[in-house]
Amino acid sequence: MKHTNKFLALLCATALFAASLEGCAAGTSTSITGSAANSAATASASSSATSATALSAVAVEYTDRDKDTTWDAASAVTISCSGTDATITGGGATLQNGVLTITAAGSYLLSGSLDGQILVNVADTDKVQLVFNNLAVTSPDGPALYIQAGDKIFVTLAEGSQNSLADSITYTLAEGQDEPNACLYSKADLTINGTGSLDVTGNKNHGIFSKDDLKITGGEITVNALNDGIKGKDCVAICAGTITVVAGGDGIQASNTEDATLGWVSIDGGRLTITADGDGIQAETVLQLNPETLAITAGGGNANAAAKAGSTETMGHGGMGGRQPGNAAVGTDSANTTAPALPGSGNPDASTDATPPDGSTEAAPPDGSAGATPPDENPDAALASTASGSNAPATAATTETNETNETNTTDENSAKGLKSTTLLVAGGTITVDAADDALHANGNATIAGGYLTLASGDDGIHADSTLCIAGGNVEITTSYEGLEGSDIEITGGYIALAATDDGLNAAGGNDSSGFGGMFGQDNFTDSSSLSGESQLNISGGTLIVNAQGDGLDSNGAITVSGGVVLVSGPTNDGNGAIDTGTAATITGGIVVAAGASGMAVNFDSSSTQGSWLASTGSQTGGTTLTLADETGNILASWAPAKAYSCVVVSCPGMVAGGSYTLSCGGTVAQADSDGFAANGALASGTQVAATTLTTLTQSDITATMGSSKGGGGAGAGINGGKGMGNGAAPTG
C-alpha cells in the first residue's frame, strides 16, 4: 500500500470541515479533505478567537485487487484438508507433519478441516490468493495461518462459506524469538475480502496481526483474542464487511511508533462491533472514521470508571478563581456521583444508551434559522450485540503467562473508546461506552459529521491540543467532563451532553480531574492561541449542556459569535454556568445559561451584543425560562433540566437602552423538541424580572462567592476543586 500524508489547514472559527470518503468504490482512494463556508459563523470573531488547527489525514488506497473476490478456477491449486492430511491438486503447495506450505505465487482454493498450520513462504515479489471455502484450521503449536514472506497476501472468503482459524495456547519458538504471536500472523501486506465468514480465535495472544499493512474490504469476520483483536503494525484500513471483535487488549490497533507516516487506522465503511478490555480502536498517529456503524465497549464501559477527584464529599469540583470552598456544602452537589440527565426533550435517563437519533424527532436541533441542523441522513442504528462474559477466549483461562505478550504502545491500562494522536470523524453511526474517555486525541480532534452517542467514565471527547466540532450530531449521555481540550472550537453541528463536572473545559496544564484513578491524568499541549491561554470559541451549531460543575469553563477566554448555546448549570454555589479565566465575550448567537448564583458571571464589557445576568428566584428543573422584548416578542425560551436561581441570556438585537422581561413557567407553542424557541408567544408564564439595559452587558446580581476571574496559582487541594487563587473566599 502506498501511504500519502495530507496536511490540512482547517480554520475552525470560520470553516466547516467536510468529508469526502467514497469507501470501497473500485479503484479509488479515500481521504478526509476540503472545507466549505459555515453559514452559522457569519459574525466576526475577536482576534483571540481566530485560530488555525493543522490536522494530518491519510489518503487510503483500496485497489481493484483488494476488492476482487473472484479467482481463476482453471489455474487455482485445489487443496482439500482432512485432519493432518490434505489432497493437493496442482503445484506450489506441500504438506508435511500437518504443515501446509505454500511456496509459489498464485491462487489456492482451500476447504475441509486441517489439524495443523498453513505456512506461506514465497518470494518478496510474489502475490498469493488464499480462497477459503468452508475451511477450518486448528493449530496444535503456533499460528493457524503464518505468512512468513511475500509481497501481498489476499485471503478471500468464498460466497456462502463458513471458515475458522484457531491457534494454540502455547507456542514453540526459537530461543530469543517472540514472534509469531497471533492466530493469523503476517509479515507481508495482508488483505481480507469476500462475502463468506471467518472466525478467528487467538488463544495465545493476538487474533489477526500484520507486521505491514492490513486491509479488510469485505466478509463477516469475528475475532476473539486474548490480547489485541485486529492489528496492523503499519496501518489498518477497513472499508466494508461486518466485523465483531472481543479482545482482552485493544480491539483494533496500529502500533508503528518509528515512522510518523505509519501507525494509522482508517475506517471507511463497514459495520463494526468491538468489546475490548483495553482501547476500542487505538492508532499511534491518525485515526479517521467514516463507518456505516461502529459500536464500542471499552474497559467494561462507563460503569467501570475510575474514581474521580471531586466525586466524594471531601473534594469539591471547584472552578476558576476564588473557588476555595471552606465547607462541605459548597462544591458538593448531592448528585455529583450520578450523571445528570441528557439535555433534550423529556430529559431521558443519561445512563441509558441512546440509539442514533431520528433527525425528525427528539434529537432535532433548534430551528435552522438559529442553529445548525443535524445531518439529514438517518442510518440504520441496529448493531450486532456485543459478546458477554470475559473478553478472553474460553481457553485463555488455562494458558500460561505469555512472556512475549506485546503490550499496548501507550498507556498500559488505557480503556478509551477511540484513541490516537490525530482523531478525525467524518461520518457514520458511532456508539461508544468507555471506562475512560470515549474519544481521545493526544493532539487534535475534529468531528465533521456523523451520529455519535457517547458514554464515558471520564471525558466524552478529549484533545490534548484543539478539539473542533464542525458538524454532525453528538450526544454524550454520561461523562465526568463532556468536551475537553487545550482549546475548544465549535463551528457547527448539534451537541447535547451531560456531565457530572464541567460541561466544556478548555484547560491548560494538567487536568486535575484525571489524577488518582487507574487511567492516570490527562495532559495538555501548549495552547495554540495567540494569547498563550486556553480558548473556548463558539461560532455556530447548537450546544445543549447539562453540567453539575461549570457549564462552560475556560482557563483563558470564552468567545461566542454564533450558534445556540443552552446551559443547565450547577445547582451548588461553588460552580457557575459560565466560568472564564480572563474574559467572556459575545458578538453573536443565542445564549441561555442558567444555574446557581454563587459564582455567576456575565459576558465582558468588550462584547458587541447585549446580555443580561438576572435573578429568577428559585425555580425547579424543567421550568420554562423566557426572554421577551418590550413589545412582548420572544427572543429566547428554554426549559433548563435542573433547578436554577439566575440566568445569563444574550440574543441578537439586545441593545443598550432596550427593555426586556424574564418569565418563568408556561409554555411556548413554537418550542422544538429540546424545549427551545427563538420566537412565538408565551402562555401562562409569570414575570420574574424586568430591566432596561443601562449597559450593553448588564448584571443585576453580584456573585456571593467571589469573581471567577481570579488570578494566582492553581489549587487542587482538598475542598479546593480546581480553584485559581485570589478570588474572594465564601462566607459561612
Structure characterization notes:
The chain is mostly beta strands and about 725 residues long. It has 1 helix and 56 strands. The strands form 5 sheets. It has a 24-stranded parallel β-barrel. Strand 8 and strand 9 form a beta hairpin. It is elongated and about 90 Å long. The protein starts with a strand and ends in a 33-residue tail after the last strand.
Return residue spans where pLDDT drops below 50 for at least 5 consecutive residues: 1-56, 310-337, 345-392, 394-410, 509-517, 527-531, 707-732
- The number of distinct β-strands equals 56
Query: What is the overall number of helices?
Result: 1
Mean pLDDT, all residues: 79
What can be said about this structure in brief?
With 732 residues, the protein is an all-beta fold.
SSE topology:
Blueprint: E1 4-10, E2 15-17, E3 29-30, E4 35-37, E5 53-61, H1 64-67, E6 77-83, E7 85-89, E8 93-96, E9 99-102, E10 106-115, E11 117-121, E12 127-138, E13 145-149, E14 152-157, E15 162-166, E16 182-186, E17 189-194, E18 197-202, E19 206-210, E20 213-216, E21 220-225, E22 230-232, E23 235-238, E24 242-247, E25 252-254, E26 264-267, E27 271-276, E28 281-283, E29 286-289, E30 293-298, E31 418-420, E32 422-425, E33 429-434, E34 439-441, E35 445-447, E36 451-456, E37 459-469, E38 473-478, E39 481-490, E40 494-499, E41 504-506, E42 535-538, E43 542-547, E44 552-554, E45 557-568, E46 578-580, E47 584-595, E48 611-619, E49 625-629, E50 634-638, E51 644-650, E52 659-664, E53 667-668, E54 682-683, E55 686-692, E56 697-699
Parallel strand pairs: 6-10, 9-11, 10-12, 11-13, 12-14, 12-15, 13-16, 14-17, 15-18, 16-19, 17-20, 18-21, 19-22, 20-23, 21-24, 22-25, 23-26, 24-27, 25-28, 26-29, 27-30, 28-31, 29-32, 30-33, 31-34, 32-35, 33-36, 34-37, 35-37, 36-38, 37-39, 38-40, 39-41, 39-42, 40-43, 41-44, 42-45, 43-45, 44-46, 45-47, ...
Antiparallel strand pairs: 1-5, 2-4, 3-5, 6-7, 8-9, 47-51, 48-51, 49-50, 49-52, 52-55, 53-54
